[in-house]
Amino acid sequence: MAGILLTDSKIKGIKPKESAYYVWQATATRGTGRLGIKVYPSGRKVFVYKYHKDGARKFLSLGDYPHLSLADATAKALEAAANVSAPEVVVFEHATVQQLFNDYIADQKRLEHRSYDKTDNRLKQVLFTGFISPDMPAKDVTPDHVKKVLADFIKRGVLAGANKVRTSLHAVFNFGLFADTDPANINGKIKYGLDRNPVSVVPAQKGADKALDRFLSWDELTQLLRLLNVDDIACPINPNFSRLALLCLYTGGQRPWELMTNTRDNWDKKGKTLTVPPHISKNGGRVRQGGVNSEPAFR
Known about the structure:
By secondary structure, this protein is of the alpha+beta class. It folds into three domains: 8-89, Integrase, DNA-binding domain (Double Stranded RNA Binding Domain), CATH 3.30.160; 97-185, DNA polymerase, domain 1, CATH 1.10.150; 218-298, no CATH class. It contains nine helices and seven strands. The protein has helices at residues 8-13, 70-82, 97-110, 116-128, 143-155, 159-181, 218-228, 239-250, 256-260; strands spanning 21-24, 34-39, 45-53, 56-65, 267-268, 273-276, 288-291. Strands 1-2-3-4 form a four-stranded antiparallel beta sheet. A hairpin with a 2-residue loop joins strand 3 and strand 4. The mean pLDDT is 80.
C-alpha cells in the first residue's frame, strides 16, 4: 500500500482485511527506515519500524495502537533510526503505573466491557491513597505496595470495596504480564517489564463479598411470583419494576441491564431461548443464550 501521512484520524479509519497488511508513513527520504502500522484481520494495529540490515529487510515492533500514541511511536522510530547499526537494541523505558492503568482501561473500552468506568474509578482510588505513585515503573510495584493500598480501604471499614480494588488491580497486572509474555508477540519489545503479578500473593478478605446469607425458599418464590404476576392496578410495586423482576426470574437470573436493553428479535419463541448479544453483555465479546421458562414476561 502506498505511503500516507499518518494521523490519528487516518489510523482510526484504517479497516482490517482478510489477511494482515502494512500501511506506511509517507516519506521523501529513500534508504532510511520507515514508520508504519501492521493491521491484523482482528482489527489490531501495531506500530512497526522497517529498516534494512545486511541487505535484508527487518521489522521492529514498537507497540499497539492506541496504547502507544502516534507521537510516541514516531519518537521511538526516530530513536531506532539514530542507532543505524542495530535499531533493535534501542532501549525503551518501561511503562509507568499510570500508563499501565490507561492501557488497561483503553483495552476494556475496545472490548466493549460495560464496567470499565467502575474499574477506572477504582484505579483512581488506588492512586489517591498515595501508596502507589502513578509515575513509578509498573514493574517496581511490590506486594507490599498492594497490601498498604488495600489496608487503607480496610481501615475505613470498606472490606468489600478492598476486595473489588484487589480484583481490579489483579486484572490490570495480568493484562501487562500477558502482554509482555504473549508468544504471538515474540518479536515485540517488552513494554511493562513485569515478571510476576504483585497482587497474586496478597489475600482477599474472606466473607466480605457475601451479599446474602440464604436463598428464597420455593414457597417464598411462589408467593413472590403471585404478588408480581397481577394486573398493574393490583401490583404492590411499580409495574415496570414488576415486569423486569418477572423477566429476570423467567430467564433464569439474567442481568437486569441485559434484559432492559435487549430487543424482541433476540427472543426465539419456538426454541424458548433468549440471546444476549456482545454489545450489551457485561463481559462483551461473545454471544450468550439462556433458556426461557415461561412466556408471560415477554407479552
